[in-house]
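Hi L.,

As promised, Protein nucleotidyltransferase YdiU:
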Amino acid sequence: MTEPVTAAEAGWHFDNSYACLPELMFTRLKPTPVRSPKLIVLNHALASSLGLNIQALQGQDGVDVFAGNRIPEGASPLAQAYAGHQFGHFTMLGDGRALLLGEQITPGGRRVDIQLKGSGITPYSRRGDGRAALGPMLREYIISEAMHGLGIPTTRSLAVVTTGETIIRETGLPGAVLTRVASSHLRVGTFQYAANWGSVEDLQALADYTLQRHFPEADTQDHRYLVLLQEVIKRQAKLITQWQLVGFIHGVMNTDNMALSGETIDYGPCAFMDAYDPATVFSSIDVQGRYAYGNQPSIAAWNLVRFAESLLPLLHPDEDQAVKMAEEALADFVKQFQAHWLSGMRAKLGIFNEEPQDEALADDLLQMMQKHHADFTNTFRALTLEKPEETVFFGTTGFAEWHERWLARLGRQQEPKASSLQLMRSSNPAVIPRNHRVEEALEAAVNQEDYSVMERLVDIVSNPYAYSPEQEEYAGLPPESACRYRTYCGT
């Protein structure tokens, strides 16, 4: 019998700073062991960047860690407590099927959370079974790697293991555990929980911890809690802009799914938009369209108001003054988002400098795309490749006029056309994880235990700006269907 691989041999280097917060913020407990874990996918590039030994992770000891059957040396598992507004309704939440193993210190000194998702019942499970199904865990793996490839801040997936157990949703499904890596799992909902169920001292301890972890340069400044609010606003304005510029729809923008680090978190009912329409919704539970594509900026602003509310006791002893400070900070979100969005649209159109009519140029294109049900990604792809004939509105008077305006606009800048095209290539993905491709991969994996379809898809979408011949078939639109595409949260 071989000796177990030590944490040092596997490359684990855990620290547990979150566990130093007030005890109401978490519950210590171990994962619930699973029957027969099997490694399905391991993110080699991510593992290497974390300083982990890939060979050791693929062995039985490594698989047991990913399944929750073995706690690596130095880890201190806990379930985090938090609250949140879910579709506008405030409720107590917490890690209902996840455990934070601890924080890995990378070779470069970076601190990241290592979390198991689907690891069993916790005190916050709310009558759930604490488990996860294979399909949703693989979906998170695919989409998070695609987002990373797009250059959008995101949590990432290190590994997925099957458990050898069946979990019951509408039917029996293969169980799985996903290992998620995040800059942290601090959320707007974490602060809402502390503000509602903790003392001011608890809230201050959480705020100080967040500053030290994510905004250390602001920790010593005057009004550091106002700086905390401003920095979170800044990161969210940039993040939501990046979502909008690639047609990503999160699907469940509850306050517990807004990470203060500025990373995209929780890939439940998410999807990428095909035909451009601000009203696009994929989530089966978003019947009112609260989290539609076009609503994402305003929902982000709404969530940030909730964050500001939780910080009021720390902003100023006088409540009226605290509210005024928060309102002034929040007013910047719209300005920042609009500035980022216009800058991003200029890049998508190959524009380097600024002119007053640039916003109208971008808006007119989007309106034309909506009118003609044009594919969002492929319209910009066609312009990038200088193939306007591949757009659905080619030949219309409206497009001819717009195209002439655009070419004239490019001609009024110093940069040559080749530079504009290069800027467009780096701003317009050639491929996204098309919904039908994702479903194709999940179908093969879950029902046939064929993971090759998923592996090829991940390989393609991990380098979306390559414009390689291999990406051509993945740029194709889904077949016509009488049914609207729907996604499910997987809980």
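The mean pLDDT is 95.

Thanks again for sending the construct details.

K.
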